[in-house]
Amino acid sequence: MYISLDKEQIKIFFEEHLHLDDEIRYILDGSGYFDVRDKEDKWIRMYMEKGDMITLPAGIYHRFTLDENNYVKAMRLFVGEPVWTPYNRPADQFEARQKYVHSLAQTA
């Protein structure tokens, strides 16, 4: 599934959220930033441009925003049936979030 976003549409993606399934994004055109939370709950910013791909595990808090070009075209890949539901923070009650946090503790 392809997504083309402009400056107005991107606002919904900048709200910090998580998904109950892994999210895989491939940047087809344009550029922007994915922000994810580290073990200490601080932001890590990753610049993404055409040809880049990212896999976000289920339960990780994240957000996306455009850069100064104000455009991105991305493909979202799914395992199974497409699920688009974002759960805005706080969403710690979900099993996917609890599993993700537990996996962080295992690597400490």
From TrEMBL:
Record-linked SUPFAM superfamilies: RmlC-like cupins
CDD domains cross-referenced by the UniProt entry: cupin_ARD (cd02232)
Listed cofactors: Fe(2+)
GO molecular function: acireductone dioxygenase [iron(II)-requiring] activity; metal ion binding
Keywords noted in UniProt: Amino-acid biosynthesis, Cytoplasm, Dioxygenase, Iron, Metal-binding, Methionine biosynthesis, Nickel, Nucleus, Oxidoreductase
Top enzyme category: oxidoreductase
The keyword Cytoplasm belongs to this UniProt entry's keyword annotation: yes
Matches recorded under InterPro entries: ARD (IPR004313), RmlC-like_jellyroll (IPR014710), RmlC_Cupin_sf (IPR011051)
Entry EC no(s): 1.13.11.54
Catalytic activity annotation: 1,2-dihydroxy-5-(methylsulfanyl)pent-1-en-3-one + O2 = 4-methylsulfanyl-2-oxobutanoate + formate + 2 H(+)
Protein name, per record: acireductone dioxygenase (Fe(2+)-requiring)
